Amino acid sequence: MLLGLMPARQQKQPQPNPSSPEKVNPVFCKSICKFIVSIYLRQLMEDSYRHRGLRKRLVQTVKDKGINDEAVLAALMKVPRHFFFDNAFLEHAYQDKAFPIGQGQTISQPYTVAFQTMLLKVKPGSKILEIGTGSGYQACILLELGAKVFTIEYNKVLYEQTRKFLPEIGYRPVFKYGDGSLGWPLHAPYDGIVVTAGAPVVPQTLKEQLTIGGMLVIPIGNTERQRMVKITRLDETEFKTEAFDHFAFVPLLGKEGWRK
Ligand code: SAM
Predict the structure, then answer these.
(1) 108 in catalytic set
(2) Could you say which of 38, 108, 126, 181 is catalytic?
(3) Measuring CA to CA, which of 26, 99, 237, 238 is 20 to 30 A from 161?
(4) Can you give the residue ranges of every domain in the chain?
């Protein structure tokens, strides 16, 4: 007889089974979910033979454009740039160009990252301040060179995203949310400061946060086009300024940058 046609009294009630508790432990459930997500992420974050081949070609392109610092080229070879791209845009990861990362910002062109890094003359143990964390790619290159990296981002969404993402792929700079045009006096002085956004003038506060011998690399110009400038601190009050090629960066906002 169909169960639904039985008089209510006679219908079989489900019996509790002492060996299968009704409530699933939420802590256990959370761990399982985390485990599944981590396996999924690991698959997405695969650095295959093909990716390494594409990266090798990119490094050669950057070298052909004049980057001759072997340590910088080796760091470029180590960081899987495709990790910073959505799956749909993977073919852009190993082209020598900047690419949008949301919030009107970009991941810098590999040549530009290499050029700024080369000017900084990073050594293992150097203390470097990066202004403009963005995707975190430049910070990873600096970490691969053995630097202790402090990085500041002014856009809250990018700051939150990158602060979460970099440790997931094994990179751990010290993050800050705020106006990097004022530097980060708490950890000063720095052996190097790299500004990855274009400024109207060289912020005095940044120069004052350099060690003697420390270098500030910063693009200076208007909002369309800037000249790469390197400032070396010679002593307490003296600085040497050198100017290099033109680049096109997004604007450095903030008190010592462009007003929003
Ligand atoms: N270094 C980044 C990378 O590797 O992806 C690229 C940075 S993107 C070209 C410039 C970044 O500077 C943007 O994320 C922007 O939000 C940030 N920025 C602009 N003004 C800033 C400020 N005053 N302080 C900190 N970050 C700032």
Answers:
(1) yes
(2) 108
(3) 26
(4) 103-247
